[in-house]
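Can't paste images in this forum, so I'm doing it all in text. The chain is below; anyone willing to post the predicted structure tokens underneath?
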Amino acid sequence: MARDWAALAGASPAALALGAELIARWSEPHRRYHTRAHLAAVLTAIDRLTSPAGELGGEPSGGPAEEPRGGPAEGPGGGPAEGPGGEPGGGPAGEMGGGSAGGLGGVMGAAGDPVVVRLAAWFHDAIYDGRAGWDEERSAHLALARLPGCGVPAGRVTEVARLVRLTAAHDTLGPGDRNGAVLCDADLAVLASPGYGDYTRAIRQEYAHVPDADFAAGRSAVLRRLLATPSLYRTSRARGLWEERARANMTQELARLRALAAAQPARDEPPQQLS
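Text version of the structure:
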């Protein structure tokens, strides 16, 4: 992973030190799902969503054997992915890639700035204490504090922080948000994984301090919110790859949680938000 970070952020002393810090954060012993394997899976999913159609691979996994491919040749300090004035993508915010109507295209360029999206993946759960929303906000602040020292332009730093904050809920993207669509779709690729059961068990372990009834209620609320959206995924490629299986996995989990909740005594407190 250190090589992949250096390919993305460069090999300056500051960049290498930041890469080591991020890898150490993702390796913290209290993590069960939000680990280096999750980071690797998100980076691999980003590759799948931004690669030419002929390079598509197999199923999303998120398992420990998954390793991200190296990033694009250009680094975060500039190159073809950065447009005039440091604006990601070099075009207006509402510009969309190719693909079917109603979603962003799943082709090369689906992300306005793939470098920014990969940087945001590295930071999106860099700080993780199981506090939804707060973790993402602190991770965004970490990006704002660390990336300028690696020579990342201010526009890209701001965009990385914005993208990190989006992953708190995944349903606050605006129309034409190409970077946000790719990052959120990659983060949710695990919902379609054949290893979905392992994912849900790891999530439960991270919330081991939460009683079963509260966990079932909070997790059910998350699943219902996601299932109520017209589409879980914003890019056409992600919808084609993962939508059907993800909805089946989530529906089955929701049924199990309902059965668990029905067996527990009623509580008056609102459920904790879980992700």
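DSSP finds ten helices and no strands in the chain. Residues 62-109 have pLDDT under 50 and may be disordered.
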